[in-house]
């Protein structure tokens, strides 16, 4: 982007600042919205509408004792929570927030996102393994299996969009949606990507790696203080990332009627998806582990392949 | 860009050496991941961004995760590390070292000899070009890979086939009562 060159560092700083704050603010938003949907009040004491709960939570996380268990594998234990935050933050590099507001206009933007999300699996696996704890190990194994299998459908579902746009570049994918947002022709791909996205961020209802009622928080049982905070923030940034990707790939990114600037359209759409993520958490029960895997491999994989084949066939037919 | 290439190449070399010399197998695999990431950067700087992305997605993101997945199930302890130390005596290094030296000599010859210098300039190879050559001149290779993967899947199915699926004893169908699942 030629016009973006002068304020390059401004964009990087802006994206970093906004994303880290969104992750913190989501803690409050999630608790308030959960409360609303479950007919409670939620945190409403500290500050206006309970907003200061974010500050209180952050202070609490920073000042808690940061304890590394003596039986843990120290270097890996310390490394694991950093990986999730780094990989998610790096993914935001390729997201076009508005024309000109993009950190790196990569030609392989979509593949870069897939690569970084597959790196995210390491944080769960290594965190669970290095904790040297049976529950953590179980959580890590579930997480590894879940993330690897759902990455397959995620990538394949995205290929429908790539076929229609003819590019891996996210900016060009958004431009290709000027006539029609891709969620109409790619409705199946959209649903599969959405489900895979929930599994990829291991959010409820697919929070099987942590499953507090059976695995006592699974892979991050042994983590405390800000190391736990990193997993926590990584999860919220993961939700934001998946919402941004859903908007960019299927809901026309920054495109919208002219009476609002493009960035506002993008934010509105992303917030709508964040709300859906929170509503899912409020309303869905957790499936059993084997149900999740069977659902993935026996239903989603064939559906994705059919979607890909039909998309390719229709495109070829339209061309000829 | 050239400096990036040299840094990434150095990181890849160091990480690979560390992969071989670590006794703790998970640490070794972590260095292997670093090595893959560095090689991906090398691909990127040499004008093959598509290959770089695939390198991370497939090798670093899927294959090594699967290896770690298997190793986690083995429940390795400090005794295993000691056992491995006992196996890796200096005598073990001789054979691989000679083979590597031969390869290194060949590599040095290719780089230094005047008639093997690359003549054409670097061209960026994007996804479209990779796809065109895969489904053009290399079609046979793609099909052979497909057959190989199919054989692997059939083998895995044969090994992992379940005799009988037991969900829970209360959920099993009984005589005189229809299935409750």
From TrEMBL, chain A:
Keywords of the record: Cell membrane, Membrane, NAD, Oxidoreductase, Quinone, Translocase, Transmembrane, Transmembrane helix, Ubiquinone
Superkingdom: Bacteria
Transmembrane regions listed in the UniProt entry: 7-29, 75-102, 108-129, 150-168, 180-199, 228-251, 263-283, 295-318
Localization annotation: Cell membrane; Membrane
Entry-linked InterPro entries: NADH_UbQ_OxRdtase_su1/FPO (IPR001694), NADH_UbQ_OxRdtase_su1_CS (IPR018086)
The keyword Glycoprotein appears for this protein: no
Catalytic activity: a quinone + NADH + 5 H(+)(in) = a quinol + NAD(+) + 4 H(+)(out)
Pfam hit, one: NADHdh
Keyword NAD: yes
Enzyme Commission (EC) number: 7.1.1.-
Gene Ontology molecular functions: oxidoreductase activity
Protein's membrane topology: Multi-pass membrane protein
Assigned protein family: Belongs to the complex I subunit 1 family.
Biological role stated in the UniProt entry: NDH-1 shuttles electrons from NADH, via FMN and iron-sulfur (Fe-S) centers, to quinones in the respiratory chain. The immediate electron acceptor for the enzyme in this species is believed to be ubiquinone. Couples the redox reaction to proton translocation (for every two electrons transferred, four hydrogen ions are translocated across the cytoplasmic membrane), and thus conserves the redox energy in a proton gradient. This subunit may bind ubiquinone.
Subunit structure comment from the entry: NDH-1 is composed of 14 different subunits. Subunits NuoA, H, J, K, L, M, N constitute the membrane sector of the complex.
Name recorded for this polypeptide: NADH-quinone oxidoreductase subunit H
Record organism: Pontibacter populi
From TrEMBL, chain B:
This protein's record includes keyword Lipid biosynthesis: no
Stored Pfam families: Oxidored_q3 (PF00499)
Molecular functions (GO terms): oxidoreductase activity
Enzyme class: translocase
The protein's Enzyme Commission number: 7.1.1.-
Membrane topology: Multi-pass membrane protein
Main localization of the protein described in the UniProt heading: membrane
Transmembrane domains' residue ranges: 6-23, 30-50, 56-76, 88-112, 138-159
Recorded superkingdom: Bacteria
Free-text function comment from the UniProt entry: NDH-1 shuttles electrons from NADH, via FMN and iron-sulfur (Fe-S) centers, to quinones in the respiratory chain. Couples the redox reaction to proton translocation (for every two electrons transferred, four hydrogen ions are translocated across the cytoplasmic membrane), and thus conserves the redox energy in a proton gradient.
Record-linked PANTHER family: NADH-UBIQUINONE OXIDOREDUCTASE CHAIN 6 (PTHR33269:SF17)
Protein name: NADH-quinone oxidoreductase subunit J
Source organism (scientific name): Pontibacter populi
Species lineage: Bacteria, Pseudomonadati, Bacteroidota, Cytophagia, Cytophagales
Gene name of the record: nuoJ
């Amino acid at each position: 982007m030629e016009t973006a060159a002068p304020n390059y560092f401004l964009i990087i700083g802006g994206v970093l600042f906004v994303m880290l704050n969104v992750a913190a603010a989501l803690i409050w938003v999630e608790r308030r919205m959960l409360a609303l949907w479950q007919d409670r009040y939620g945190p409403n004491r500290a500050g206006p509408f309970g907003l200061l709960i974010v500050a209180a939570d952050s202070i609490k996380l920073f000042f808690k004792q940061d304890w590394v268990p003596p039986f843990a594998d120290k270097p890996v234990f310390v490394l694991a929570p950093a990986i999730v935050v780094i990989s998610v933050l790096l993914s935001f590099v390729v997201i076009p927030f508005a024309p000109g507001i993009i950190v790196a206009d990569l030609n392989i933007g979509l593949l870069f996102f897939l690569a970084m999300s597959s790196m995210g699996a390491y944080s769960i696996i290594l965190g669970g393994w290095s904790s040297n704890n049976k529950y953590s190990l179980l959580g890590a194994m579930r997480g590894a299996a879940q993330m690897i299998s759902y990455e397959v459908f995620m990538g394949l579902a995205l290929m429908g969009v790539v076929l229609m746009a003819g590019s891996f570049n996210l900016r060009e994918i958004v431009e290709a949606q000027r006539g029609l947002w891709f969620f109409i022709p790619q409705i199946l791909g959209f649903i599969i990507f959405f489900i895979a996205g929930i599994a990829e961020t291991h959010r409820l209802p697919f929070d099987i790696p942590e499953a507090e009622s059976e695995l006592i928080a699974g892979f991050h049982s042994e983590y405390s203080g800000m190391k736990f905070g990193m997993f926590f923030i990584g999860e919220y940034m993961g939700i934001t990332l998946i919402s941004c990707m859903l908007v960019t790939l299927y809901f026309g990114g920054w495109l919208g009627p002219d009476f609002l600037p493009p960035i506002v359209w993008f934010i509105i759409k992303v917030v709508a998806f964040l709300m859906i993520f929170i509503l899912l958490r409020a309303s869905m029960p957790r499936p059993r582990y084997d149900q999740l895997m069977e659902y993935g491999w026996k239903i989603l994989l064939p559906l994705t392949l059919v979607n890909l084949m039909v998309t390719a066939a229709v495109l070829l037919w339209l061309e000829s | 860009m050239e400096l990036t290439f040299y840094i990434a190449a150095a990181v890849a070399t160091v990480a690979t050496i560390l992969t071989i010399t670590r006794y703790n197998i998970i640490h070794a695999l972590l260095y292997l991941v670093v090595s893959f990431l560095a090689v991906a950067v090398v691909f990127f700087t040499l004008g093959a961004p598509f290959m770089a992305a695939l390198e991370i997605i497939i090798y670093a993101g899927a294959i090594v995760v699967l290896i770690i997945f298997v190793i986690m199930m083995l429940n390795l302890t400090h005794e295993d590390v000691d056992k491995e130390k006992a196996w890796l005596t200096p005598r073990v290094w001789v054979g691989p070292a000679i083979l590597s030296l031969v390869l290194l000599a060949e590599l040095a010859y290719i780089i230094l000899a005047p008639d093997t210098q690359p003549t054409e300039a670097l061209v960026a190879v994007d996804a479209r070009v990779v796809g065109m050559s895969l489904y053009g001149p290399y079609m046979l290779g793609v099909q052979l890979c497909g057959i190989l993967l199919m054989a692997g899947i059939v083998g895995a199915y044969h090994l992992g086939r379940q005799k009988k699926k037991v969900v829970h004893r209360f959920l099993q169908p009984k005589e005189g009562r229809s299935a409750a699942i």
